[in-house]
Write a structure and sequence with these properties.
Helix content of chain A: 40-55%
Domain ABC3 transporter permease C-terminal (chain B): 316-428
Largest sheet of chain B: 6 strands, mixed, barrel
Number of helices of chain A: 13
Strand content of chain A: 15-25%
Transmembrane segments (chain B): 20-46, 313-334, 361-382, 402-425
Membrane topology (chain B): Multi-pass membrane protein
Protein name (chain B): ABC transporter permease
GO molecular function (chain B): transmembrane transporter activity
Number of domains of chain A: 2
Strand content of chain B: 15-25%
Radius of gyration of chain A: 32 Å
Order of helices and strands of chain B: HHEHEEHEEHEEEHEHEEHEHHHHHH
Distance between the termini of chain B: 34 Å
Oligomer: heterodimer
Number of domains of chain B: 2
Structural class of chain B: alpha+beta
Largest interface: A-B, 51 and 51 residues
Structural class of chain A: alpha+beta
């Protein structure tokens, strides 16, 4: 059957065809944008973090008695908890901190080189009040200078992450430089710190104890590979045994923290993926019932064709090629819809621009679905024997 | 009535003749409607006016008082300092005003001191809070003034939880080891969305358990658990000096609300803020450009950038999905009516008027609507459940009241009619002669 003839037959049923095309166009637009959002979310989640996600456990704790949230009781409680945790088999290191890395927001402060505030100021740098095992827990590499040790407790010495040091001091050697937060004694490799900080991998580590634990504090535990579940099981009890007046949060592995940070993006991407699946299903149902109905309507025509010598394969191809043509035309309009939708979505959320190959890929997917759905009704059409089909003529 | 029953019976026969196409049409329609409803439910709760009787009079006030010399900083901070609050209050223009922030603590009763304390959500605020947002009291009343006092107002559920009864005015409670007297118990009350505090996108969270006077919180160093922004604060962390430090520095954590009963009052208050900033500038303070914000309660989510973009994006997509489903169902029902055309034409040939045919079509629409409505509600529940588990911040928004259900039912009838409109017209008005020849 020539394209010309199919188009003629489509034009005879203008409204039905228009409805079909509209539906196909919107479907393509939605599927393309959903795929785009899903892939953007996946990239966001899978970006390198500089942390051994499966080997770090975190748990937020908060003393339920107000006096224990202040010094000196606070330090004493923390060291008792850490000592107990370090005895659990499979634990390589454990440390407390005011906050964990890989978070949405949290405590941050501005940071600048003391005599160059105007040029070197960085607005939001997450800071970590913590202890000497933190580098082991996070698994950071020393880039320059030295790591902090127990001797640095309470001093104004700080460690910066590599990217932050570059930002503040440029090509100069940062070691020994003085900032508003203290003297830089070392630089460690980058890790994902806070999502909404000035930069996600900025971080400043000091050993100044927390003034108070009004918001609680975090215990971070580095475990040997494959040991995280075994340690996780005991952790809450160990912490409670060290100090009973303690509100203990859920023990989270670092990759769970990460999923929490990107939850909204992952959620939306999943929702849209589900919706895309439903759309394809709807497109398939529509293609199926259209072909089904059409096959019945065209019974006589098919019968005559068969009587005049058209093979079954030929009739099958006829029915399928009409589906293909409508899908292709609908998808053509769909490319417009998908750019339009992309622009409207970009006003609400951040969504990447549509790459050229994606609509084409979706078109292929759509064709595949439509073919699959048309197959059965098309087969029925070919099965009609010429004698039955032409009986009423 | 008899005609209706007869028509319903006819639709039933026509469905029974070809159940699969009918079921598919219904499936597609209810899928689209269900998705749309689940999204519309969240959208409705997120964007409704929670206090329609006075939303026009409630405003959140902010001034751009952050220290520092920044000539292009026009967005005032989301939270204000104690000093700002003092300057903005006491003008006499608003009929109610209160500063506030949220916090949390551990509480237990005096009788049951051995028990493990349970965590409670605190709202640290001033006496007018309850008047501002029409919060009903079950027992007792608000504080007589804004001074520090060891007295709290608690919610009904908190009273039931700690004392197992509601009339507990005069009872004492330990909150973070400090002794407070209960002076008021609220009746059931919730604001959804919780527009009096949307900072940190927490507008879908429930109202707090315990209300504590602001001055007391400053004295006891209770801090905000949403946002604490320190600007140029030089403090050694010594808790003894906290009350003094927090009251005299840019230790920002407050949201300040006023009730302005008429447009003139709004104007007066705006002028008051303008004068205030001019005075501050004259005194060498308020170094950033003047940028006073007086946001109405209904605009506050936008102003604080606390809208849920994921829901907005999904709303757009769900509406398009509904469009696809309606178009599709319409297409399918056209097929169905065309298949029944012979029957329709025969009826007309035997003398049925077009109006009688319309009656039958309406009965058909009614029948489909009922089925589609039931299925759509089912799909909407499924959809809500999915969205709630994927976006946990929407969990509080999933309920339906009877008004919503009624609107949804009406919507389903409307859409079902729309879907059958073209097919119905086509079948009842096409030339008889040609149809019967087939």
């Amino acid at each position: 059957m020539s394209v010309h003839l199919i188009i003629k037959s489509l034009l005879r049923r203008k409204v039905v065809t228009a409805l079909l095309l509209l539906q196909l166009a919107v479907t393509l637009g939605l599927v393309v944008n959903s795929l785009l959002l899903a892939s953007a979310a996946k990239e966001l989640v899978e970006q390198p973090t500089g942390l051994a996600l499966e080997q770090i456990l975190t748990v937020r704790v908060k003393p339920t008695s107000a006096s224990m949230r202040n010094e000196p009781a606070l330090s004493e409680v923390i060291s008792r908890q850490l000592a107990a945790i370090r005895l659990i088999p499979g634990v390589e290191a454990a440390e407390y901190a005011n906050q964990t890395p890989l978070r949405q927001g949290g405590s941050s402060s501005n940071l600048f080189e003391t005599d160059r505030q105007d040029e070197s100021n960085v607005d939001a740098v997450p800071y970590y009040n913590t202890g000497s095992q933190i580098f082991q827990v996070l698994g950071t590499q020393l880039i320059a200078g030295r790591e902090l040790t127990d001797l640095d407790k309470g001093t104004q010495n700080i460690i910066l992450t590599e990217k932050l040091a570059k930002q503040v001091f440029g090509e100069q050697n940062p070691i020994g430089k003085s900032t508003n937060q203290g003297t830089v004694v070392g630089v460690v490799s980058d890790f994902y710190s806070q999502r909404y900080a000035t930069d996600q991998s900025y971080g400043a580590i000091n050993f100044v104890p927390m003034a108070r634990a009004e918001m609680g504090y975090q215990l971070m535990i580095r475990v040997a590979p494959g040991q995280s579940e075994a340690v996780r099981k005991q952790l809450t009890d160990v912490i409670r045994n060290a100090e009973s007046e303690m509100d203990i949060g859920t023990v989270m592995r670092m990759d769970e923290n990460r999923d929490e940070v990107f939850r909204a993006e992952i959620g939306l991407a999943t929702l849209l993926a589900v919706l895309s699946g439903l759309m394809l299903l709807v497109a398939m149902i529509s293609a199926y019932s259209h072909a089904h109905f059409h096959a019945l309507q065209m019974q006589k025509e098919v019968g005559i064709k068969r009587a005049l010598g058209a093979s079954k394969a030929r009739v099958l191809l006829d029915v399928l090629s009409e589906s293909w043509l409508t899908t292709a035309i609908g998808a053509g309009f769909g490319i417009l819809v998908c750019y339009g939708l992309n622009i409207s979505l970009a006003k609400v959320i951040s969504i990447p621009a549509v790459p050229v190959w994606l609509p084409l890929l979706t078109l292929v997917l759509l064709l595949l679905c439509v073919t699959l759905a048309t197959w059965y009704p098309a087969r029925i059409a070919t099965r009609i024997s010429p004698a039955t089909a032409t009986k009423t003529l | 009535m008899e005609a209706l029953l007869h028509n319903l019976k006819l639709s039933w026969f026509s469905i029974k003749r070809a159940p699969l196409p009918y079921a598919l049409t219904l499936l597609i329609l209810s899928l689209g409607l269900g998705t749309f409803f689940s999204n519309a439910t969240l959208y409705y709760w997120m964007n409704r006016d929670p206090i329609p009787q006075k939303s026009a009079t409630l405003f959140m006030a902010r001034i751009n008082s952050t220290p520092g010399d920044c000539t292009d900083c026009f967005e005032p901070p989301r939270v204000m300092s104690y000093m700002d609050m003092q300057k903005m209050s006491g003008s006499g223009i608003p009929s109610a005003e209160a500063a506030m922030f949220s916090s949390d603590a551990y509480a237990k009763t005096v009788e049951n001191q051995q028990a493990t304390p349970s965590q409670v959500e605190l709202r640290v605020t001033q006496r007018d809070f309850f008047k501002l947002f029409d919060v009903p009291f079950l027992h007792g009343e608000t504080w007589p003034d804004n001074k520090a006092r060891m007295e709290v107002v608690i919610s009904k559920n908190t009273a039931l939880k700690f004392f197992s009864r509601t009339d507990v005015v005069g009872q004492e409670m330990l909150i973070d080891d400090k002794l407070y007297k209960v002076i008021g118990v609220l009746d059931d009350w919730a604001m959804l969305p919780r527009l009096y505090d949307v900072n940190g996108r927490r507008s879908a969270e429930p109202a707090e358990d315990i209300y504590i006077p602001l001055e007391t919180a400053y004295d006891l160093a209770i801090q905000s658990n949403t946002q604490n922004s320190y600007f140029d604060v030089d403090w050694d962390g010594n808790m003894a000096t906290y009350p003094q430090m927090a009251r005299t520095n840019f230790a920002n954590q407050l949201q300040f609300w006023v009730q302005l009963d008429s447009p003139e009052k709004v104007q007066q208050y705006q002028q008051f803020l303008k004068n205030l900033v001019a005075d501050e500038k004259a005194a060498g303070r308020h170094t950033r450009p003047e940028s006073n914000k007086l946001d109405n309660i209904l605009d506050v989510q936008k102003a604080m950038r606390a809208t849920n973009e994921q829901l907005d994006a999904f709303a757009l997509v769900a509406s398009l999905f509904l469009l696809v489903c309606v178009v599709n169902a319409s297409h399918l029902s056209l097929n169905r009516y065309m298949a029944n055309q012979y029957e329709f034409s025969l009826r007309r040939a035997l003398g049925a008027s077009r109006w009688q045919l319309q009656g039958q079509i309406l009965a058909d629409v009614l029948f489909s609507s009922v089925l589609a409505f039931a299925a759509a509600l089912l799909f909407a529940q499924l959809g809500l459940w999915t969205i709630n588990s994927l976006l946990p911040s929407t969990r509080a928004l999933a309920g339906w009241d009877w008004q919503m259900v009624a609107v949804m039912a009406l919507f389903v009838v409307l859409i079902s009619y729309l879907v059958t409109l073209y097919p119905a017209l086509k079948t009842s008005f096409s030339p008889l002669n040609q149809q019967l020849k087939q």
